[in-house]
Specification:
Layout lengths: L1 H27 L5 E11 L2 H11 L3 E9 L1 H7 L5 E9 L2 E10 L17 E7 L2 H10 L3 E2 L5 E2 L11 E6 L5 E6 L16 E11 L2 H11 L3 E9 L1 H7 L5 E8 L5 E9 L18 E7 L6 H6 L3 E2 L5 E2 L9 E6 L5 E6 L1
Parallel strand pairs: 1-4, 5-9, 10-13, 14-18
Antiparallel strand pairs: 1-14, 2-3, 3-4, 5-10, 6-8, 7-8, 8-9, 11-12, 12-13, 15-17, 16-17, 17-18
Length: 342
Amino acid sequence: MIRRLQLVVLGFLVGLWAAAVLTAPLLAAEAPRVRAVDAVALTVSDMDRSLDFFTQVLSFEKVSEAEVLGADYERLQGVFGARIRVVRLRLGEEHIELHEYLAPKGRPIPPDARSNDKAFQHVAIIVSDMVKAYSHLRQHKVTHASTGPQRLPTYITAAAGIEAFYFKDPDGHALEVLAFPPDKGAPRWHAQDRLFLGIDHTAIVVSDTERSLRFYRDLLGLQVGGASENYGPEQEHLNNVFGARLRITGLRAAAGAGVEFLEYLAPRDGRPAPADLKANDLQHWQTVFEARDAAPSFAAVRDAGGLFVSPGAVSIADRVLGFGRASLLRDPDGHGVQLVER
C-alpha cells in the first residue's frame, strides 16, 4: 500500500514537472500585452480653438469626431457626469486625440508648470527643416517653452546633431518639434518634402527609470530601443531647466509612436503629479495603447507601481470611439495610460 502511494505521488510530481517544461516556452513566447501606441490624448478647454491650432498651425488632419456620455465613460475615465467631445487627428502615420469635457470642466494647467515636473508630457513632432518650422511657429505667435531651437552637441553621442524646440499649445500643453540629422531617425523622416511629418514619440518625466521600466516594459510589453544621458547648455535651454541632466530611455511597441522616459538626474526638485489629478483636468494626458487584453490584474498593476483609475476593464456598449473594452491606469508617476481592445 505504501509502495503504491509512493508511485502515485511520484507520478503526480513527474506530471507537474512535465507540464512546467512543456508550458515554459509558451509562457516565454507570450505576446506583449500591448500591440501598438494607438494615439496620445490630451484634455483641452476649447475644442474649436485647439482644432484651429493643430490643423492650421501644425498641419494635422481631422479623422473623426464624436460626443460620448453615460455610465460606461464615467467609469472608464473616472469622472462622474462626464460628457466628452472627442476629436481624432492624424499627422503622417500617427494620431492624437483631443478631449474636451463639456461637463464637468476640470482645472487648468498650473501657470508655473515646469519641464521637470513629474506631470510633464509632450509629443515630439518631426519636421523636415527646423529653420522653416521655427519661423512658421513664430509667425503664429506660439508661446516658447525653450529659449529657441537647440542643436544637441557631439558629446551626447546618441543625440548629436538633433535639433529640437519646445513650445506650448493654447492650453499650455508642451509640444516639441524635432529635426533629425541624416545619420539619425527612421528613413521615413528623411524621404518627405512636407514641413510637419509625424510623431516620433511621446515623452514623459519619470522619477525612477527602473521603476517605470517595470510598468511599461514588464507589464505592458514595450521594448527598450535606446538610451542617452543628455546635459550641457543646449539641453538646459531646450528644457528651460538650469543644470538639467537627463537619463533618457526610449521604448516602443510593435507599431505607433515611441514612449520616451525623461529622468532628471539633476535638478531633482520637479514636483509630483497632483494626487487628485482627474481626466478632465487640462494637465491630464493619456497614452492610448491598443491591447490584446485591457484587463491586467489589480495585483500586477500594483506590483508594477501603477494603479487603476477605472474599476478594471470597462465594456463600452456603444463602441462610438472604436473600441469595445478599455481600462484607464496611472503609471508610477501619475501619467495616464489607456488600454483599449478593438
